[in-house]
């Protein structure tokens, strides 16, 4: 599996182990950042995820129980860097929140406890998990192990919104380096950072141990985000649509994948679900600069599982002195101007279900979710992976944008 990912002029690459590899998010991040690294082995117990990993990288991860690994096994890989994205279910708000008592947390703790027993422990670790992990007993145990092993850490809660991606999915990240290695900005050591400013060498006041990101900083991040349309497989009509215009291809990853998994029609939300759950749906538009986090139940359920996309945009113009409204309805088939009375429009506005039906919302496709997770254009699914399986594994995948953005920052160049 030893595929080198070297930058020109650099010496021997870092040897990396990728625990809980999933569909390869960590590996793609390292590749995107151009880090001089060799991925020695990947580990994941999920058969479907490993099918996708093998399809894209030509190597199937180790699929056994990693709790059976010994210190000698880990030494045999000669890896200096460990990447870990353990199961998040023990720490999610929707779960049972059993923390370290959850069996799914045990493998992560076992790997950490093995580290001091190895003859060649790693010099760097990167850990990713859901928000909530930072207050868990598992996190406390991790911090104790790392401190005893002479690691210094920097911790973050960051979202794609901080990096221009219109996707609200805050995640926990921890970077750890074993002494004598060090971070160039020691002020961030042993801190939990909830905004990206300190990473770029400014706004040190954003370093906070608790609470939320300052509202002004969040607003600034939202303003800098690309519109949702930039991440879609097909363009949707915008506010400036001309009557003769229609959907056209957009140069984003996966623009041809819809034909491989069926018609776009399968992504539209049925009327029965609009009638039942319309009040609980989060609807976004192509020009929106934020959408909600997708969960693994997305496409199976609509309530609280992620945003839906309006495929029809309605623009209204009231003519002063007349009891009529000009309505511009734009969709993938073109645009139409309709004249309605003010009374009719008032009644329709009061009927939310009819209004939602008029927007014809659809689910984001798996490729679009992958785009929001910043997966590269050449990432794709094997043909035998069903639509529901695609949603399950892509919504649970890593956020690449933070990892490869972080490696470019001058404050942490010494990490590599």
TrEMBL record:
A Gene Ontology term for the protein's cellular component: nucleus
GO terms of molecular function: methyltransferase activity
Keyword field contains Ribonucleoprotein: no
Origin: domain of life: Eukaryota
Keywords: Membrane, Methyltransferase, S-adenosyl-L-methionine, Transferase, Transmembrane, Transmembrane helix
InterPro entries: C5-MTase, C5_MeTfrase, SAM-dependent_MTases_sf
GO biological process: methylation
Membrane-spanning ranges: 319-339, 391-409
Residues at the catalytic site: 88
UniProt keyword annotation of S-adenosyl-L-methionine present: yes
Family: Belongs to the class I-like SAM-binding methyltransferase superfamily. C5-methyltransferase family.
Protein name: DNA methyltransferase 2
Species annotation: Escallonia rubra
